[in-house]
C-alpha cells in the first residue's frame, strides 16, 4: 500500500512552507492545491532524492477553491485516478493501491479589523469567514476522507518502514490535521471580540471531533483527525495584527507587559512570533509524535492541548 500527502491550500503561508518542507524531508507524492496553479510551491532545498526533477515528479499541483465544491470534486477525482484506494491494471500498466497518509488542511481568512462589539458584526463578512474557515474544511473531509486507510486494510508499504522519508507519523498512523487557533477556544476566551473568526475556529474544533469519531468507526487506529494551533505566525493573515503590536510596543504601550492584547490574550512585547518555516517545522515535529490517544482534539505547536 503506497502513501501520499494532501495539502490544501499550498499557494502561500503555512501551506506553501509545509509543501516545501515535505518535499525536502519525505519521498512521498504530494498533492498541493491552490485557487490558481500559477504558483508552484517548489522545494527551496534538495529533497531525499536531491534533485528538482524528482521533486517535480512527486508534486501534483491542482486547482482547488474551498468555496467552489465542483473544484473540490474535480481534485478528488484526479486523486482517485492517480492514487486509487484499490489498485487496478496489470503488468507495466498496474497502478498500486494507495492510502492518504497525511492531510494538512489550512484554508483561512481573517478580515480586519475584527469586531470589537456586536454592533460591528457584518452578515456578508461573517458568511465569507465561515465559507472558508469552517465549511471549506468540512467539504474537503467530505471528498477526501475516503482516501484515508480503512479498518482492515493492508498497512504494508512498498517503502521501507525504517525509512523516515516514507512516513510522517512514527506510529504509522495517518493524520488528518486542520489548522485552528487558540482564539477558537471557548474556555480560553477571556477578552471577547473577534466574533466571526472565533466562532469559525470553534466550529473547526467541533468538526475535528466529529471527523475523528467517524474515523474511529471507519479506520480504527489507522487514521485520526486533529486540529492544530501553530502559534502566532508571520503571514499575510497576521501582517496587520503584528504591525499593530509593533507600534504598540514602540510607543511604550506594551513594553511593560501589562497591556494585554484583545487579539491574542498575551502582551504584545511577550508574544512569540514564528516565521512560517519555523511554524511548519514545529507542527511536523508534533505530527511525528502524535499518538491515537491524542485524537479528536486541538493541540498547540508545543504539544499542549488547547481547551475546547
What does this protein look like?
The structure is a single chain. This protein is of the alpha/beta class and 308 residues long. Helix content is 34%, strand content 15%. The chain has helices at residues 13-25, 52-58, 69-82, 123-144, 195-218, 239-250, 276-289, and strands at 2-8, 30-34, 59-63, 98-105, 174-179, 223-229, 232-233, 273-274, 298-300, 305-306. The strands form two sheets. An eight-stranded mixed β-sheet has the order 3-2-1-4-5-6-9-10, sandwiched between helices. A two-stranded parallel sheet has the order 7-8. The longest helix is centred in the last third of the chain and has 24 residues, at 195-218.
In short:
The chain is α/β, with parallel strands linked by helices. Helices cover 34% and strands 15% of the residues.
Summary tags:
308 residues, alpha/beta, eight-stranded mixed sheet, two-stranded parallel sheet, 10 strands, 15% strand, globular
Strands in their spatial order, largest beta sheet: 3-2-1-4-5-6-9-10
Return the structural class.
Answer: alpha/beta
How many strand units? Answer: 10
Give the radius of gyration.
20 Å
Summed up, the helix count is 7
Distance between the terminal alpha carbons, to the nearest Å? 36 Å
Task: Please bin the fraction of helical residues.
Answer: 25-40%
Mean pLDDT: 84
Shape: globular
Q: Sheet bearing the most strands, described?
A: 8 strands, mixed
Q: What share of the residues does DSSP label as strand, in percent?
A: 15-25%
Given as residue ranges, the uncertain stretches (5+ residues, pLDDT < 50) are 157-161, 248-270
- Reading the helices and strands in chain order gives EHEHEHEHEHEEHEHEE
Amino acid at each position: 500500500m503506497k502513501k501520499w500527502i494532501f495539502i490544501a491550500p499550498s499557494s502561500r503561508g503555512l501551506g506553501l512552507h509545509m509543501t516545501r518542507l515535505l518535499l525536502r524531508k519525505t519521498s512521498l507524492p504530494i498533492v498541493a492545491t491552490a485557487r490558481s496553479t500559477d504558483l508552484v510551491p517548489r522545494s527551496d532545498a534538495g529533497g531525499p532524492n536531491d534533485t528538482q526533477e524528482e521533486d517535480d515528479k512527486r508534486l501534483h499541483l491542482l486547482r482547488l477553491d474551498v468555496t467552489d465544491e465542483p473544484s473540490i470534486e474535480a481534485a478528488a477525482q484526479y486523486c482517485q485516478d492517480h492514487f486509487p484506494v484499490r489498485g487496478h491494471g496489470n503488468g507495466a500498466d498496474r497502478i498500486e493501491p494507495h492510502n492518504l497518509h497525511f492531510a494538512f488542511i489550512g484554508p483561512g481568512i481573517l478580515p480586519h479589523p475584527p469586531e470589537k462589539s456586536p454592533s460591528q458584526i457584518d452578515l456578508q463578512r461573517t458568511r465569507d469567514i465561515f465559507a472558508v474557515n469552517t465549511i471549506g474544511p468540512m467539504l474537503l473531509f467530505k471528498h477526501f476522507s475516503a482516501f484515508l486507510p480503512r479498518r482492515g486494510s493492508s498497512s504494508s508499504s512498498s517503502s521501507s518502514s525504517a525509512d523516515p522519508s516514507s512516513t510522517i507519523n512514527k506510529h504509522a498512523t495517518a493524520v488528518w490535521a486542520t489548522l485552528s487557533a487558540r482564539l477558537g477556544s471557548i474556555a480560553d476566551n477571556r477578552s471577547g471580540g473577534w466574533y466571526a473568526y472565533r466562532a469559525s475556529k470553534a466550529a473547526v474544533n467541533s468538526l475535528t471531533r466529529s471527523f475523528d469519531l467517524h474515523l474511529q468507526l471507519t479506520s480504527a487506529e489507522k487514521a485520526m483527525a486533529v486540529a492544530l494551533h501553530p502559534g502566532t505566525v508571520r503571514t499575510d493573515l497576521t501582517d496587520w495584527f503584528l504591525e499593530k503590536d509593533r507600534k504598540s510596543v514602540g510607543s511604550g504601550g506594551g513594553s511593560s507587559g501589562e497591556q494585554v492584547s484583545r487579539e491574542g490574550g498575551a502582551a504584545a512585547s511577550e508574544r512569540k512570533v514564528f516565521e512560517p518555516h519555523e511554524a511548519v517545522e514545529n507542527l511536523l515535529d508534533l505530527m511525528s509524535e502524535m499518538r491515537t490517544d491524542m485524537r479528536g482534539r486541538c493541540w498547540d505547536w508545543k504539544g499542549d492541548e488547547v481547551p475546547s
